[in-house]
């Protein structure tokens, strides 16, 4: 039986008149994700990934608010993505990781293919979209992500599936999403908006 290990703090959520106690204060354990993703998971300071995702939305909006349209075209080096492309990449990756989490949380055992981030950016309309539209897209994606994870039952958090030829849990995917954003937010702060 899949269950989240017991911890002293739980978050109680009522969904459709069903009280679900979901322990959201347990970080992914070794073996819940490919080692590559440890670098993202380690960036998430909180053991409450739902609170971290929600707080990130506020912090990222503060960071991006007030930017001029021309700021969206900034590149810190000629071969690097523009700020608009970074935001678009964050949105794409969050959608993909959330889709993986949805399928795995529902017990779908079908292996999920990988994706090539550079191809996604190269074939995207990000450079032609207004910066404000990409930020609005970020808000919509993050709200959908938080809603997905907030409404999972306890068993779903530790369900395992295969994505990009590697085993991963739903819990690890939530932390990967949060850590991936923190990784790119630091790059935005240090290289684009310094």
Describe this structure in words.
The protein is built from seven helices and four strands, in the order ββααααααββα. It has helices spanning 38-41, 49-64, 83-105, 117-122, 131-150, 154-157, 170-192; strands at residues 11-15, 18-22, 160-163, 166-169. The chain is mostly helical. Mean pLDDT is 90; it is low at 1-22. Helices cover 49% and strands 9% of the residues. A hairpin with a 2-residue loop joins strand 3 (160-163) and strand 4. It has a single domain (33-192), classed as Up-down Bundle (Four Helix Bundle (Hemerythrin (Met), subunit A)). A two-stranded antiparallel ribbon has the order 1-2. Strands 3-4 form a two-stranded antiparallel ribbon.
Quickly give the structural class.
mainly alpha
Integer tally of domains? 1
Low-confidence runs (pLDDT<50, min 5 residues)? Answer: 1-22
CATH class bucket: Mainly Alpha
CATH architectural grouping: Up-down Bundle
Query: How many alpha or pi helices?
Result: 7
Oligomeric description of these chains: single chain
Let me know the number of strands.
Answer: 4
Shape: globular
How are the strands of the largest sheet arranged? 1-2
Topology-level CATH name = Four Helix Bundle (Hemerythrin (Met), subunit A)
Superfamily (CATH H level) name: dinb family like domain
Q: Return the average pLDDT rounded to an integer.
A: 90
Work out the strand percent.
5-15%
Compute the CA-based radius of gyration: 17 Å
Query: What about the largest sheet?
Result: 2 strands, antiparallel
Distance between the termini: 49 Å
Question: Roughly how much helix do the residues carry, as a percent range?
Answer: 40-55%
In N-to-C order, the SSE pattern is EEHHHHHHEEH
């Amino acid at each position: 039986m899949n269950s989240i290990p017991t911890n002293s703090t739980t978050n109680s959520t009522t969904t459709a008149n069903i009280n679900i106690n979901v322990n959201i204060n347990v970080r992914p354990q070794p073996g819940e994700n490919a080692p590559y993703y440890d670098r993202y998971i380690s960036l998430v300071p909180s053991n409450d990934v739902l609170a971290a995702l929600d707080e990130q939305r506020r912090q990222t909006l503060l960071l991006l608010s007030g930017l001029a349209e021309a700021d969206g075209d900034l590149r810190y080096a000629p071969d690097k993505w523009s700020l608009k492309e970074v935001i678009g990449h964050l949105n794409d990756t969050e959608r993909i990781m959330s889709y993986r989490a949805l399928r795995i949380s529902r017990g779908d055992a079908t292996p999920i293919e990988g994706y090539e981030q550079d191809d996604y950016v190269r074939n995207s309309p990000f450079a032609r979209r207004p910066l404000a539209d990409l930020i609005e897209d970020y808000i919509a994606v993050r709200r959908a992500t938080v809603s997905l994870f907030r409404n999972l039952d306890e068993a779903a958090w530790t369900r395992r599936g295969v994505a990009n030829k590697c085993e991963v849990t739903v819990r690890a995917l939530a932390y990967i999403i949060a850590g991936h954003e923190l990784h790119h937010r630091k790059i935005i702060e240090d290289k684009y908006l310094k």
